[in-house]
Amino acid sequence: MNETDRRGFTLLELLVTLAVIGILVALLLPAVQVAREAARRMSCANNLSQIGVALHNYHDVHRVLPFGCGTDYDGIVSSLGTLADRRYSAHSQILPQLDQANVYQQIDFQVAPFHPYVNSGAYDPACIASGGLSATNGPAAVAKISSFVCPSDIDRLQSVWGHNNYRSCNGGGWHGRNGNGMFGQNSSVRLGDVTDGLSNTAMFSERCKGTWDHDIFDPLADIYDAAGIWSEETFRDHCLSLAPQQAAAYHQNVDSGQNWLEANFNWTRYNHLAPPNHVSCKNGFTWDGVGMAASSRHAGGVNVLFGDGRVQLVSEYVDPATWRGLGTIRGSETLNDY
C-alpha cells in the first residue's frame, strides 16, 4: 500500500506564526483601547448633555436654576454637618427632568439629607449594615443614576450610596458660600442673569471619584488640606504651585463623589480656582476656602457643560485666567481661546 504523505507545521513555522500574531495584537491593541476610550468619552459628554437639558427644563418650569447647595448652619469654620442642615445638591433637584421622578419622590427634603446621620453616614456601622436603608432618604440615595457616572473613571468607592462624577460650578473663586457661578449656596440664578454669555459660562464639569484609601495617592481624585492663614490670592498661588508629589505631603480626603444627594465640595461641587486636572486644595477644615479642580481620566482635559447646553472638552493647559472667567456669570472677563 502506498503511504499518503502527511506534512504538518515545523516548529520553526509555528514560532514564526505566533510571532506574527503577537506583532499584530501589539499593533491593534492600542488602537482598540483608543477607540474604546473615544466611545467612553462620548458617553461621558452625552451624560453632561442630558444634565444640561434637565437644567434648562428645570429653568423653564421654575424660572430659576436649582441651587448648588442648600442651607447649613456653619460658622466661619465648616462643620461635618448637623441634622438642622439641608445641604441638598443640584443633582437631587433635577431628578424629575432626568426621568428619575420615582427616585425624587422618595426624598424628604424637610430633613437632613442622610437623617439620622450626618456627613452622609457612609462610615456609620448601622448605616452600612442596613445597606443605607436605615437613613430616611436611603431608598433614594442608594439609587445608581447612570447619568451621574462617567464610564472612563475608576470606581473604588465603598460608599453604599449612588456615586457621582459630575459637579455643579460654584464659581471662579475660593468661596463655598459666596460663589459667583451658576450654582452657589442657596443661589437663585436665572439664565438672564448670566451677563458673561451662556456660551462662555460653565454649568457643570466632571471630577474623578475617590480612592477610599489613604494609602493610595491619586491627585486627580484627592483634595489636600493646606491649612494656613490665607487670602484668596495667596491661597490660589500656593495651590497652583503644588506639584502632585508635593501635595502628597498633606492629609487628603479620599471620598470624592461618594454620593449625589448631599451638596459638598468633595461630592457634588467644583470651582475654577485651579485649571482642569490640577491638584486640588482646601484651607484645612473649612470648605469656604477651597480650590476644587475639575478632573477626568480623558487624555488632556475635561468635559464641560456650558450654559447654552453645549459640551466641550477643555484642555488642561487652558489659560488659568480664562478658566477662572469661564466659572463666573458676570465677571466681564476677556477670554482667550479654550
Pick out its properties.
alpha+beta; five-stranded mixed sheet; four-stranded mixed sheet; 27% helix
Structure description:
The protein is of the alpha+beta class. It has one domain. Helices cover 27% and strands 9% of the residues. The protein contains 8 helices and 9 strands. Strands 5-1-2-8-9 form a 5-stranded mixed β-sheet. Strands 4-3-6-7 form a 4-stranded mixed β-sheet, with no helix packed on it. A hairpin with a 4-residue loop joins strand 8 and strand 9. The longest helix has 52 residues. It starts with 10 loop residues before the first helix and ends in a 12-residue tail after the last helix.
Task: Note the main sheet.
Answer: 5 strands, mixed
Q: What form results from the Cα inertia axes?
A: globular
**Helicity level:** 25-40%
- SSE order: HHHHHEEEHHEEEEEEH
- As a whole number of angstroms, the C-alpha radius of gyration is 23 Å
- Widest sheet: strand ordering: 5-1-2-8-9
Total domain units: 1
Low-confidence stretches: none
Class based on secondary structure composition and strand pairing: alpha+beta
Number of helices: 8
Mean pLDDT reading: 91
- Percentage of β-strand residues: 5-15%
Strand runs, count: 9
Cα separation of the termini? 82 Å
Break the fold down into its secondary structure elements and pairings:
Blueprint: H1 11-62, H2 90-93, H3 101-104, H4 125-129, H5 138-141, E1 166-169, E2 202-206, E3 223-225, H6 232-241, H7 244-247, E4 252-253, E5 269-270, E6 280-282, E7 290-291, E8 301-306, E9 311-315, H8 320-326
Parallel strand pairs: 1-5, 3-6
Antiparallel strand pairs: 1-2, 2-8, 3-4, 6-7, 8-9
